[in-house]
Design brief:
It is a single chain. By secondary structure, the chain is α+β, with helices and mostly antiparallel strands. The protein folds into 2 domains: 4-183, Fructose-1,6-Bisphosphatase, subunit A, domain 1 (Fructose-1,6-Bisphosphatase, Chain A, domain 1, 2-Layer Sandwich), CATH 3.30.540; 194-322, D-Maltodextrin-Binding Protein, domain 2. It is 30% helix and 23% strand. It has 7 helices and 15 strands. It has helices at 4-10, 15-37, 59-75, 207-218, 236-246, 267-280, 311-322, and strands at 46-50, 56-58, 78-83, 90-91, 98-106, 117-125, 147-153, 157-162, 168-173, 178-183, 194-196, 229-230, 249-252, 284-286, 306-309. The protein has an 8-stranded mixed sheet, sandwiched between helices. Strands 12-11-13-15-14 form a 5-stranded mixed sheet, with helices on both faces. A hairpin with a 5-residue loop joins strand 1 and strand 2 (56-58). The chain is globular and about 60 Å long. The relative contact order is 0.14. The structure holds 6-O-phosphono-beta-D-fructofuranose and manganese (II) ion. Manganese (II) ion is lined by residues 103, 106, 236, 270.
Length: 323
């Protein structure tokens, strides 16, 4: 089986980006090990602190963040990082050529039930003019991403990665510690009969989502004329992996509760990397108003509505916004 390095070279990734990705993934392998130790290492459960988003931090959130922060800061390739678990950007090497944004442990409430979790990341060039502690350099639309991916810590540890030449899936071979290519050039099926949304928020959804989901639930008796199934992992990384693997539509839509918080998911280190992977696999990713990758960020922890997955199903959903 082909190794990660060979595939990255075949895709024309520059050597420094390959080295950065290998460094980042070395951190993810350590996270994978720490996560797998679970209760044996006393790493389950919460800390007493909250992150900048007001979410209680799990012990594994803090551990995973520290692992990635240390390995990326010491690598020399990175000028600064932004993380879900850091209030502000973290300056690294003033001469580094890249910026990395990450969610060190997505879906971390799943740690205590031994269910799916993962690390999500995206990488852009670091502008020459920026100071390493200047957050404005991170405010680039997702169209500027040079690499994005996630590592899913499941029954297998799997990497989904794109450098802009398709999305490939790799599986971590724990016998020698390498990521091996297990699915090249993933293509998300264009049609689906599976959706993912947290239905307990229904009363807070905007009208197009109410109407669209209503029609899916009406099944073969409704205007769609077919039954749909629903799945919800409660970890974006798990839901997106399913959608990449067998199609589907994933939504965390605009929420009427708080206009300051138009969705739950964060643009830089959740929505953008997943949108990049999805588009590279032939899927679509929208806020309901436009392409996620074209949203111009205004702050590093900005949230956006997310609708992504199978091309034709996302297109159908978007027709409800135009109605
Ligand atoms: O990181 C936010 C997140 O945990 C996502 O991974 C996941 O899709 C979503 O929130 C789950 O939200 P809820 O708590 O509404 O199920
Ligand atoms: Mn997350």
């Amino acid at each position: 089986m082909k190794r990660l390095n060979s595939q990255l070279q075949e895709d024309g990734a520059p050597m420094e980006l390959i080295l950065l990705l290998r460094t980042l993934l070395a951190g993810c392998k350590e996270i994978s090990f720490r996560v797998s130790q679970g209760a044996l290492a006393g790493v389950l459960g919460s800390t007493l602190s909250e992150n900048v988003q007001g979410e209680t931090q799990k012990k594994l959130d803090v551990i995973s963040n520290q692992i990635l922060k240390d390995i990326l800061s010491e690598s020399g390739y990175v000028k600064a990082i932004s993380s879900e678990e850091e209030d502000d950007v973290v300056p690294c090497n003033p001469n580094g050529n890249y910026l990395v944004s990450f969610d060190p442990l997505d879906g971390s409430s799943n740690t205590d039930i031994n269910s799916l979790i993962g690390t999500i990341f995206s990488i852009t060039h670091a502008p020459q003019w920026m100071d390493a502690d200047d957050p404005s350099a991170f405010l680039q639309p997702g169209t500027q991403i040079v690499a994005a991916g996630y590592v899913l810590y499941g029954p297998s540890a799997m990497l989904a990665l794109s450098t802009g030449r398709g999305t490939h899936l790799y599986t971590l071979d724990k016998t020698h510690g390498g990521f091996l290519l297990t699915q090249k050039d993933v293509q998300v099926p264009k049609q689906t009969s599976e959706f993912a949304i947290n239905a307990s928020n229904q009363r807070h959804w905007e009208d197009p989502v109410q109407d669209y989901i209503g029609d899916l639930i009406a099944g073969e008796d409704g205007p769609r004329g077919k039954d749909f199934n629903m799945r919800w992992v409660a970890a974006m990384v798990g839901d997106i992996h399913r959608v990449l693997s067998r199609g589907g539509i994933f939504m965390y839509p605009f929420d009427k509760r708080n206009p300051e918080m138009p969705g739950k998911l964060r643009l830089l280190y959740e929505a953008n990397p997943m949108a990049f992977l999805m588009e590279q696999a032939g899927g679509l990713a929208s806020t309901g108003q436009g392409r996620i990758l074209e949203v111009m960020p205004t702050e590093i922890h900005q949230r956006v509505p997310v609708i992504l997955g199978s091309k034709e199903e996302v297109e159908t959903c978007l027709t409800y916004y135009k109605a």
